[in-house]
Specification:
The complex is a heterodimer. Chain A has one domain: Non-ribosomal Peptide Synthetase Peptidyl Carrier Protein, Chain A, CATH 1.10.1200.10. Chain A has 4 helices and no strands. Chain A has helices at residues 3-13, 35-49, 55-60, 64-71. The longest helix of chain A has 15 residues, at 35-49. The model of chain A has no long low-confidence stretch (mean pLDDT 88). Chain B is of the alpha+beta class. In chain B, the strands form 5 sheets. In chain B, strands 1-7-6-4-5 form a 5-stranded mixed sheet, sandwiched between helices. In chain B, a hairpin with a 3-residue loop joins strand 14 and strand 15 (325-332). The chains are: A mainly alpha, B alpha+beta. Chain A binds chain B through residues 34-36, 38-40, 42-43, 46-47, 52-55, 57-59, and chain B through 38-39, 153, 189, 211-214, 224-227, 229-230, 233-234, 265-266, 269, 273.
């Protein structure tokens, strides 16, 4: 998946309408980010990559980039 | 053959109601409408301080036994994780409170969201083997007893409630093949760590902040949401495919599907993943929240009452959660 496609997918997943995000956005700083966002991200990753992130992975996530690294660099163009 | 069938279901919800507006007042960063949109929950019923899961169980059982000959009940199964005492079994207390015969079997079993499926499975096999003819199955839960007042996530999701189901011996099969599963490797992901004999209740237990605005101690319920979701993504599609195979049927031949009502987001994702048509799939926890082992019988009762399912329909029911423990079966209404 292309990085910009992933960011669009993530925006949709987190229902960010008027907020712009990029690779360096810290997800935990977003007002919309809560325990249900985590479930939404899990679903999105399962659907698009067939991968699973653990509860511990979610503790360590900061930026969009850190999320992409956890999914795996090989998943992105 | 000793076939079995679900004859009657009634449920009881406690009088106290916790609305999304009240949650928003307590947790200002929470938005009442957003909660409803994402979780599918508007309000949940919760027990009073001096009210227990056994009280709810009694009330649900009284309702189901109304206009039913109590003398016929020859087995009582009581599913709860909010037990009255370490001992004796709540089922023994209920036998007496409900004035059931004394020559009947009765016991508790400790399961959560899979509890109704296991209860149905046991009732079916007791009837099949001739141990019982008319089983009263009560699934009752009061998780709010375990939830920390500052635990935003769990206070949002869980509600209390009880359901009472009568399973009778029948000439036609009404409970088909069952598929069960267990994986205790995930036991720490949904747990009340203190209060049992391994870790006693700690009056000085310190508050733990989970980093997303929820606070609890080890005396309270802990749920690792992401891990539970990962487990369901893995286990639920498999058990659905398994139970369909065991019954030599396909999802197309099933009239309706009722999953344990965990939260709207999660079960909607599972529905899409398993490719169950939307019009065949029940999602309704608007006024109850997640009532653990009571969600499936509550849903069955509401679906029948609202004519969403009718006599003769084949319904696939699936329970999954704490343990991890899961199960599925097909019933005929």
């Amino acid at each position: 998946m292309k990085t910009n496609e992933f960011i669009e997918e993530l925006k949709e997943t987190l229902e960010l309408e008027d907020v712009e995000i990029n690779e360096n956005t810290n997800l935990k700083d977003l007002e919309e980010y809560d325990s249900l966002s985590v479930l939404a991200i899990i679903a999105m990753i399962d659907e698009n990559f067939g991968k699973k992130l653990s509860g511990q992975d979610f503790q360590s996530i900061t930026t969009v980039k850190s999320l992409m690294e956890l999914i795996g660099k090989d998943c992105f163009e | 053959m000793n076939y079995s069938k679900i004859k009657k279901i009634e449920y009881y919800l406690p009088g106290l109601i916790l609305t999304n507006q009240e949650l928003q007042k307590k947790f200002p960063e929470w938005n009442a409408e957003k909660i409803e949109k994402k979780t599918g929950i508007k309000e949940r019923h919760i027990v009073e301080k001096d009210e227990t899961a056994l009280d709810l169980a009694f009330k649900a059982a009284e309702k189901v036994l109304k206009n039913y000959n109590k003398e016929k009940i020859d087995f009582l199964l009581f599913c709860t994780q909010s037990t009255e005492y370490y001992l004796p079994s709540g089922a023994c207390i209920l036998q007496d409170k409900l004035n059931l015969n004394t020559n009947i079997g009765a016991f508790d079993y400790n399961l959560g969201c899979s509890g109704f499926i296991y209860g149905i499975a046991m009732a079916k096999s007791f009837i099949k083997s001739g141990i019982a003819n008319n089983v009263l199955l009560i699934t009752s839960e009061a998780y709010t007893k375990y939830i920390h007042p500052k635990d935003k996530s769990n206070r949002t999701i869980f509600g209390d409630g009880a359901a009472a189901t009568i399973i009778e011996k029948s000439d036609n099969e009404g409970i088909f093949e069952v598929s069960l599963g267990t994986d205790g490797s995930g036991y720490k992901n949904l747990i009340v760590p203190n209060g049992g004999l391994r870790n006693r209740y700690d009056i000085n237990a310190k508050e733990i902040d989970d980093g997303s605005g929820s606070i609890r101690t080890n005396n309270n319920i802990y749920m690792n949401g992401p891990e539970i979701f990962n487990f369901t993504i893995d286990a639920v599609p498999k058990v659905v495919s398994n139970v369909l195979k065991k019954n030599k049927t396909k999802i197309e031949e099933i009239d309706y599907v009722i999953f344990h009502q965990a939260n709207k987001y999660m079960i909607e994702y599972l529905r899409k993943k398993i490719k169950i048509p939307k019009e065949k799939f029940y999602i309704n926890m608007l006024h109850t929240g997640n009532t653990v082992s009571a969600t499936i019988p509550i849903a069955l009762k509401d679906c029948f009452y609202n004519k969403i399912v009718k006599t003769g329909d084949k319904v696939l029911i699936v329970g999954f959660g704490v343990g991890y423990s899961w199960g599925a079966t097909i019933i005929e209404i």
